[in-house]
Amino acid sequence: MKSRDTLVRLKRFQAEEKRRRVVQLNTMIAEFTRMSNDLEREITHEEQRANISDPSHFAYPTYARAARSRRDNIVASLNELKGQLEEAEAHFKEASDELAKAQSQEARDRGAERMVDVVAERRQAETHAFRRGA
Question: How far is CA 17 from CA 3, 23, 28, 62, in A?
């Protein structure tokens, strides 16, 4: 029975780790999205200030060019994180299903143990009653 309890604790720990990973990825995605939006606003502001919005123009602002490059890198990382999030969510679902399975097995085992105890108590009571009657 202890091995079943240990298995349930292990599955619970694994599921919690997977859940934390999903939360962490969601937080990172939100932060990267915010950073990307901030950079987009800065790029737009710099382009309006210089009155040049064509990155290939010779007088395009250096800061806007650098910010655009940084934003593109963040967007690429963001897309990669979204892929990792899908994978992490699948692993979390899998771990949650395994935990539920282990918990139901533990519940069945406990129910079976209780049934054995009840049967043993009845037999003992019947034996005791039979000895009294004899």
Answer: 21, 10, 16, 44
pLDDT of amino acid 106? 82
- C-alpha closest to that of 61 among 80, 47, 72: 47
Question: Could you please report the per-residue DSSP string of 63-108?
Answer: HHHHHHHHHHHHHHHHHHHHHHHHHHHHHHHHHHHHHHHHHHHHHH
Query: Angle at the Cα of 103 (from 101 to 106), degrees rounded to 5?
Result: 110
- pLDDT in the model for residue 110: 74
Amino acid (one-letter) located at 64: A
Radius of gyration of the chain (CA): 31
pLDDT tens for 75-91 read 999 999 999 999 999 99
Alpha-carbon gap, residue 126 to 13, rounded angstroms: 45
User: Does residue 85 contact residue 29 with C-beta atoms inside 8 Å?
Assistant: yes
Task: Tell me phi and psi for residue 108, to 5 degrees.
Answer: -65, -40
